[in-house]
């Protein structure tokens, strides 16, 4: 299968930010801090920003600011599909300090979620943060047309990998060989890494919810469970047979 | 390469818990709540507990309690290499409630780290939690002999995958094909999934810190960066060339 690149248009992202700002107004928030990788990617269109940024500050008025290490700033600036201020933050301490300067004036500053240790650090730095994870969740729940296309492509690619796996499921083949064959189809079909560890379990371990493939060879008449996923433009499929 | 199963002996885990309880005494904590998957796996020896449990409560006196969904409890009980009480927790609400009953009496209850949303929920349920991430970090920094062996095996396996990748790096081969070949060696060599997304980047993208492989074919004279990892008994290697 040819999993073509799904285009994210600048228009999509502008629309997202507009809809999001309407939510912020309803919640009486002056700004919002995204700390979850998937949310940062959702608003910027940059996978590298999702992986490497420390945070994305979205004020009601004006441009958003992306905080990212020097290492990642060039890639994020090239990938971002929307206008952004990019500020380098060398460490969590540096991030807190710079964020305080830019966001300390906001009385209502919402955020999504992050490790407790990071939120404690930001609060100690003087930021008045209030958790409003639902603001982004609500927005992301409603899918745009191209997002639905990406999900469909991910499902089709996962189906192809399952079909390949089922060719390998026979006595004498190891669980690892089945996993490797399925993952090869996912990779060459353009899956962005794998959304989760491919599970292949035969015999009694087929009843386990989290059974990583082993060297064990499949025996005649045994049940075999395969659970795998594909990722296209950030959207995942998860199929089990 | 044959990445044999590295045995975790019950003795190892008993020693870990003893050393950890000495740290809790120094910190004047009556109990400790592990919420980080890697820490739960470290103390129980169960990968499924690491992936599926909601938390592990370690009191100074008596057995530890693992909170896990009904789906994961059988697998965790079979895998755990140490004596544990296992309590089923159906949801985060159920987890907070049961934890309050068992741990509400502890005045000093340390914890490692978790999403802010979960810690807020547990605090609202009435638990007097204090973050002491350093307690587990210090313990885990000192590696046991078998842990060093596992790390060495992970490095050797990653080296084999890099050697395979370099056979594929030539004009006309796509980045995805290089990644698929390297991952096949990792999988069949027994790597437990992959510690992170295999990066293969050619041309100008070789300068990017986070460049997922694409359909782009390698051209003559281009720089190519490969960054990959292997995982053996939970211990990871990360090599870049």
Describe the structure.
- The structure is a homodimer of 241-residue chains.
- By secondary structure, chain A is an alpha/beta fold.
- Chain A has two domains: 10-141, Creatinase/prolidase N-terminal domain (Creatine Amidinohydrolase, Chain A, domain 1, 3-Layer(aba) Sandwich), CATH 3.40.350; 145-240, Alpha-Beta Complex (Creatine Amidinohydrolase).
- Chain A is built from nine helices and nine strands.
- Chain A has helices spanning 10-26, 37-44, 47-52, 70-79, 92-103, 116-124, 133-141, 145-168, 175-188; strands at residues 31-34, 53-59, 64-68, 84-88, 109-111, 129-131, 199-202, 224-232, 235-240.
- In chain A, the strands form two sheets. The first copy, chain A, has a six-stranded mixed sheet. In chain A, strands 7-8-9 form a three-stranded antiparallel sheet.
- The longest helix of chain A is centred in the middle third of the chain and has 24 residues, at 145-168.
- The first copy, chain A, is elongated.
- The two termini of chain A are 21 Å apart.
- Residues 1-6 of chain A have low confidence and may be disordered.
- At the A-B interface, helix 3, helix 4, helix 6 and helix 9 of A face helix 3, helix 4, helix 6 and helix 9 of B.
């Amino acid at each position: 299968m040819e999993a073509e690149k799904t285009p994210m248009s600048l228009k999509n992202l502008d629309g997202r930010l507009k809809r999001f700002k309407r939510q912020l107004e309803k919640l009486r928030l002056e700004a919002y801090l995204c700390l979850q990788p998937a949310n940062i990617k959702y608003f910027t269109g940059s996978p590298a920003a999702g992986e490497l940024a420390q945070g994305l500050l979205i004020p009601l008025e004006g441009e958003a600011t992306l905080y990212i290490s020097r290492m990642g700033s060039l890639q994020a600036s090239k990938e971002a599909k929307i206008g952004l201020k990019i500020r380098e933050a060398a460490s969590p301490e540096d991030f807190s300090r710079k964020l305080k300067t830019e966001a300390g004036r906001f009385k209502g500053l919402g955020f999504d979620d992050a490790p407790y240790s990071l939120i404690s650090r930001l609060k100690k730095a003087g930021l008045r943060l209030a958790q409003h994870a639902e603001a982004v969740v609500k927005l992301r729940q409603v899918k745009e047309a191209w997002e639905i296309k990406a999900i469909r492509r991910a499902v089709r690619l996962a189906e192809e990998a399952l079909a390949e796996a089922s060719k390998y499921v026979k006595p004498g083949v190891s669980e690892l060989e089945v996993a490797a064959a399925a993952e090869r189809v996912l990779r060459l079909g353009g899956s962005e890494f794998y959304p989760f560890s491919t599970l292949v379990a035969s015999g009694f371990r087929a009843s386990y919810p989290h059974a990583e493939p082993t060297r064990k060879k499949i025996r005649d008449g045994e049940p075999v469970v395969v659970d795998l996923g594909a990722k296209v433009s950030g959207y995942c499929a998860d199929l089990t047979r």
